[in-house]
From TrEMBL:
The keyword Electron transport does not apply. InterPro entries: 2C_sensor_his_kinase, HAMP_dom, HATPase_C_sf, HATPase_dom, His_kinase_dom, Sig_transdc_His_kin-like_C. It comes from Paeniglutamicibacter sulfureus. Residues 273-484 form the Histidine kinase domain. The chain crosses the membrane at residues 20-39, 190-212. Its EC number is 2.7.13.3. SUPFAM superfamilies: ATPase domain of HSP90 chaperone/DNA topoisomerase II/histidine kinase (SSF55874), HAMP domain-like (SSF158472). Residues 213-265 form the HAMP domain. It catalyses: ATP + protein L-histidine = ADP + protein N-phospho-L-histidine. This is histidine kinase. The lineage of its organism: Bacteria, Bacillati, Actinomycetota, Actinomycetes, Micrococcales.
């Protein structure tokens, strides 16, 4: 029984464009709402503060007038509270929403203002006046039939009256501020501010939509480019515009696509190379085994066929080893450098190639030897030179002499193998050093071995090369820096040595 597990995709299904717009609008809306609520609260506080200031101011003015005022008929302090109140109220002009009334001897007098054309709000509401007069506090806030009222009161007695003066000899001033109209105006301004904020929010949403579209356009381009890439076509690239973060992202993705395409091509060539180098030996081994089952073959012929099959199998093994080297060449740690002698590496490889039975009917000689030490992977360099030797053996005839050499110049060490023969066409010589070229028309054994040489050279930060047409045959080789793979301290020492040598020569 097969069970298919389905994993739901996590995250939001809303597009990035809508999320950008949504967050911008939400943030702006919260900010505008906070501003509107704060402004309304401030304006309401200003209404209350203005009312309180008005009440306090009127109360202070009345107290001053009661203490210092003079009856114009006698030029003496007021002895009649009714006269005092009438005189004071006659001088007052209440503002809109303000009521000033005086109570003296049971009579309620009002200062005429503009509140409701006759200033009689308190005069017409005896219960409210009575409530204020009976309140033990000198100021307060009530909710009345006329809305919120902020009030204050003060009392005065006739000059010379002792404590405990009866009510008929007292006067009371009541100042009331009805804040309903002012609060309505504050509310109206808050509503207007809210409308302006709503319009600004709509404008912000429109701008956010356009900006989000501009921002997400490169993302859409990336998606469209990714959709256009197939297993057979990796050439699509993302257009790079500007120098911002998205442009840098596009450049990074293009670089990644370059690496993917190069890796894909290398993989295809790698497979083609393996097929080319393994198919033909495998076919010949199969043919040899088919011949061996023929019982009529003489013993000598049977031994010859078996030896040929063994050589083909060994060749297939070397091919697999070369392919393994190529597969590892891009990995960290492919080379393990150490300080070695260029001349010793050259001599060791030449001696190994000259051993009896290694390369029958070929002669080897050392053409030149480099006299210097270099930071190299001795085994990798030796393997590369062996590949060049195998290549030379495959393209020479019995009795030919193959030359092996090395040299040191301009901070680099070069290793080469030269064989006699007609010069190579320059284009063909260049093509031989491109990885995996033996799959199409190259001579067997050339492309793969030279690809290994090139991989070793590049791992040492060097290059592979070929020279042909100078009358001395064809030379294949590689050149690598002497100190490129040295530890940092060693590079500093080498630079100091070179500088000291140069200064010494100049002096």
């Amino acid at each position: 029984m097969t069970r298919t597990e389905t994993h739901e995709r996590q995250g939001s299904a809303v597009s990035a464009r809508w999320r950008i717009v949504g967050w911008i609008v939400l943030t702006t809306a919260l900010a505008l709402l906070a501003v509107t609520v704060t402004m309304r609260s401030v304006m309401s506080g200003q209404v209350a503060e203005a009312a309180n200031v008005g009440v306090v101011q009127e109360i202070e003015e009345f107290r001053t007038f009661a203490a210092e005022g003079r009856d114009p008929r006698t030029a003496l302090p007021f002895t009649s509270m009714g006269a005092l109140m009438e005189r004071y109220l006659a001088r007052q002009q209440p503002l809109a929403g303000e009521e000033i009334v005086g109570v003296a001897g049971g009579t309620v007098l009002a200062a005429r203002g503009v509140a409701d054309d006759d200033g009689s709000i308190l005069v017409g509401d005896a219960a409210l006046v009575e409530r204020i007069l009976r309140d033990p506090k000198t100021a307060g806030v009530y909710e009345s039939a006329h809305g919120t009222v902020r009030w204050g009161k003060a009392e005065a007695v006739a000059a010379g009256e002792p404590a405990g003066t009866p009510p008929e000899r007292q006067a009371h001033l009541v100042v009331a501020q009805f804040t309903g109209a002012a609060q309505e105006e504050a509310n109206r301004q808050a509503v207007m501010l809210f409308g302006v904020a709503a319009g600004g929010l709509a404008l912000t949403a429109g701008i956010a939509w356009l900006v989000a579209r501009q921002i997400t356009r490169p993302i859409r381009t990336v998606r469209e480019t990714a959709e256009s890439i197939t297993a057979h076509d990796l050439s699509a690239r993302i257009p790079v515009e500007g120098r911002d973060d998205l442009a840098q992202l596009a450049e990074t993705l293009n670089a990644m696509l370059d690496r993917v395409e190069a890796s894909h091509l290398a993989q295809r060539h790698f497979i083609a190379e393996a097929r080319e180098h393994l198919n033909e030996p495998q076919r010949r081994v199969a043919a040899a085994l088919h011949e061996l089952v023929d019982e009529d073959l003489p013993g000598a012929e049977r031994a010859r066929i078996a030896c040929g099959a063994q050589r083909l199998i060994a060749r297939m093994g070397r091919t697999l080893a070369d392919l393994d080297v190529l597969a590892q060449s891009g990995n960290p740690g492919f080379v393990k450098p150490a300080r070695v002698s260029v001349g010793e590496v050259t001599a060791d490889v030449a001696a190994e190639a000259s051993l009896p039975g290694t390369h029958p009917e070929r002669y080897f000689r050392i053409e030149a030897t480099g006299n210097a030490d270099a930071w190299l992977d001795r085994n990798r360099i030796a393997d590369a030179v062996r590949q060049l030797i195998e290549n030379a053996v495959a393209h020479t005839k019995t009795g030919d002499t193959i030359r092996i050499g090395s040299s040191v110049a301009d901070g680099s060490a070069s290793f080469w193998v030269a064989n006699p023969g007609p010069p190579l066409d320059p284009e063909r010589a260049r093509a031989l050093l491109e990885s995996y070229r033996s799959a199409e028309g190259s001579d067997p054994g050339m492309g793969l071995g030279l690809a290994v040489v090139k991989a070793v050279a590049e791992a040492h930060q060097g290059t592979a090369w070929v020279e042909s047409g100078d009358g001395s045959g064809t030379r294949f080789g590689l050149s690598v820096p002497l100190e490129a793979l040295a530890p940092a301290s060693r590079q500093d020492d080498a630079f100091a040595d070179r500088l000291a040598t140069t200064l010494g020569e100049e002096s």
